[in-house]
Design brief:
By secondary structure, the protein is α+β, with helices and mostly antiparallel strands. It has helices spanning about 20-30, 55-70, 80-95, and strands at about 1-10, 15, 35-40, 45-50, 95-105, 105, 115-120, 125-135. It has one domain (about 1-135): YjbQ-like (Jelly Rolls, Sandwich), CATH 2.60.120.
C-alpha cells in the first residue's frame, strides 16, 4: 500500500510529530506484520525517530543542529536562501527516510518514541510518502 501524509509547516524550522498519521496509515492498511517505509521527497526536510515525552526535546534538537550547521550567507550554493543551503546539509546528515517495523498491526516504537518530520526551510506545504508492505 502507498499513501501520502500532507503537511504544512508553520515555521522556518520545526519538528512536526507525524506518529499518529503513520499509525493510522498502518492500521488502515490492514497489514499486521511487515515494514513501513517513510520517504521525504524534499531536500530541506528530514525524518527522525526521537523522544515525544518532553516538549523541550525539539528545542534541544533544533539548537544542536543549528550549532552544527548554522544558517549563514557564505555557502557556495545559495540557489534560494541561506536557509535552503543549510537545510540541504542538515537533511543529508539526518536523512529523508525511515524503515519502521510493523507488528500486530502497529508501528513498533519505544514507549517515549515518536516519528517526526523536521522542517529546515519553511513554512511551506510538505509531504511524507509511506510504503506499507507485508512480510
Amino acid at each position: 500500500m502507498f499513501t501520502t501524509i500532507e503537511l504544512k509547516s508553520q515555521l522556518r524550522q520545526e519538528l512536526i510529530d507525524v506518529t499518529d498519521q503513520v499509525q493510522d496509515a498502518v492500521r488502515s492498511s490492514a497489514i499486521t506484520e511487515g515494514i513501513c517505509l517513510l520517504w521525504c521527497p524534499h531536500t530541506t526536510a528530514a525524518l527522525t525517530v526521537n523522544s515525544c515525552m518532553d516538549s523541550a526535546t525539539a528545542a534541544d534538537l533544533q539548537n544542536e543542529i543549528d550549532r552544527l550547521v548554522p544558517t549563514r550567507i557564505n555557502f557556495q550554493h545559495t540557489y534560494d536562501t541561506p536557509s535552503d543551503a543549510a537545510g540541504h546539509i542538515k537533511t543529508s546528515l539526518l536523512g529523508g527516510q525511515l524503515a519502521l517495523i510493523i507488528h500486530a498491526g502497529e508501528v513498533v516504537l519505544g514507549g517515549s518514541q515518536g516519528v517526526f518530520f523536521w522542517e529546515y526551510d519553511g513554512p511551506r506545504p510538505r509531504q511524507v510518502h509511506l510504503k506499507i508492505m507485508a512480510g
